[in-house]
Amino acid sequence: MRIRIDGVDLPGRNCGPDDRIPSYTNIHVAVQRRDRPAELLDPQPGDAARASWTLECTVTGTDVKGPYVQGRPGNRFVYLSWGTVDGTGAFVMFRRAKLILEAVPADVLGAAVREGLLVGRLGLTDGRGHPLCARVVPPHVDWSARPAGPS
């Protein structure tokens, strides 16, 4: 099975400062690899119209595993890491969103296993206009199953 994360409503390339965060420029977002926080999948600029990532994974029962799936059984998640990118292309993380896989409805996960693709669609800007962070569960992410199509 594959997981595709479709992000919309990105916050822009700059944010802050305010009472909660300092100022950040040239913001990007990417999926963080398990046990390798510096290894990021396809960083996207914060002012993109949309951002999408496809992750290869395996499912045994209800346990989802893969190179970009974090956590232990019963507590699996995917990190979307927000960071600034400097002139050399170096990414410095300043916050993360944690997409909780245990919050995927069981019937949706079962259908995704049969069809080959689990899609999570979410807005990437929080209520203050900043990059989305913290724990993300429905209704802030909409999970659905789709036919996998070609790799």
Characteristic key phrases:
4-stranded mixed β-sheet; 151 residues; mainly beta
Task: Walk me through this protein's architecture.
The termini are close together. This protein has one helix and eleven strands, in the order E-E-E-E-E-E-E-E-H-E-E-E. It has a five-stranded mixed beta sheet with strand order 3-2-7-8-10, with no helix packed on it. A four-stranded mixed beta sheet has the order 4-1-9-11, covered by helices on one side. The longest helix has 10 residues, at 106-115. Strand 2 and strand 3 form a beta hairpin. The model has no long low-confidence stretch (mean pLDDT 95). It is 7% helix and 49% strand. The chain has 151 residues and is mainly β.
Largest β sheet strand count, sense and barrel closure: 5 strands, mixed
The helix/strand order is EEEEEEEEHEEE
- Using only C-alpha atoms, the radius of gyration works out to 15 Å
Q: State which percent range the strand residues make up.
A: over 45%
The number of helical elements comes to: 1
Roughly what percent helix? under 10%
Distance between the termini: 11 Å
Q: Name the poorly predicted regions.
A: none
Which structural category do the helix and sheet elements fall into?
mainly beta
How is the largest sheet built, in terms of strand order? 3-2-7-8-10
